[in-house]
Amino acid sequence: MRSALIVGATGLVGNSLLEQILDDPAYDHVTILARKALQIQNAKFHGVLAHFEKLEDASVHFDVDDVFCCLGTTISKAGSQAAFRKIDFDYVVHSAKLASHHPRTQFLVVSSLGANPASTNFYSRVKGEMEEELQSLGLPALHIFRPSLLLGHRSENRPGERIAQAVFPILRIGLVGPLRKYRAISAETVARAMIRQAKQGLSGLQIYESDVIQSIADTPEKTN
Known about the structure:
This protein has 224 residues and is of the alpha/beta class. It has one domain (2-218): 3-Layer(aba) Sandwich (Rossmann fold). 38% of the residues lie in helices and 20% in strands. It contains seven helices and nine strands; from the N terminus they run E-H-E-E-E-H-H-E-H-E-E-H-E-H-E-H. The protein has a seven-stranded parallel sheet, with helices on both faces. Helix 5 (159-171) links the parallel strand 7 and strand 8 (185-186). Helix 1 (12-23) crosses helix 6 (187-200) and helix 3 runs parallel beside helix 4. It is globular and about 45 Å long.
């Protein structure tokens, strides 16, 4: 049986991860770190109230098989580039450092297609810098997932993303071959691929572009 910790369980991918892991017989213990209590009735579920400025107070909860980090926001929602970086870089890196203290723990993180520390785009640059910093920590197993535009229902209003979600399915037919990775992908699909790769137990650095994430999720899972 496996144990998991989800950091960022209230977001699009994190929420789907939580639902799928609670239904997955391979996991018997699932902890989430959140700023407010979630009313979930499930014997596997363990919610922990945490302040992300003081994550070290919750360090004991990082001693699990799999840490899934799904933290992420937008500059408009965060309010500034500095606030965005705090969530998408500082909190993610701090989570990975806490996970690195436990030799058995895998760290699986949601990044973004186009992540590049040398990018002129602020969003892509921060994601790339985050990936670069995580790779420097010497984690025994680091899985980086780079999805394209995420599809799914969000509680907050993101007009630009809503328009893109309407347009991308129309463009899908033209995104083939090397362009396949630019196809929009559902949060549910990303979550399913993350769980499947966690259960593979691969060590070292693993990076999954969006088309590979889709392929992993679409492949029928082997059962014993």
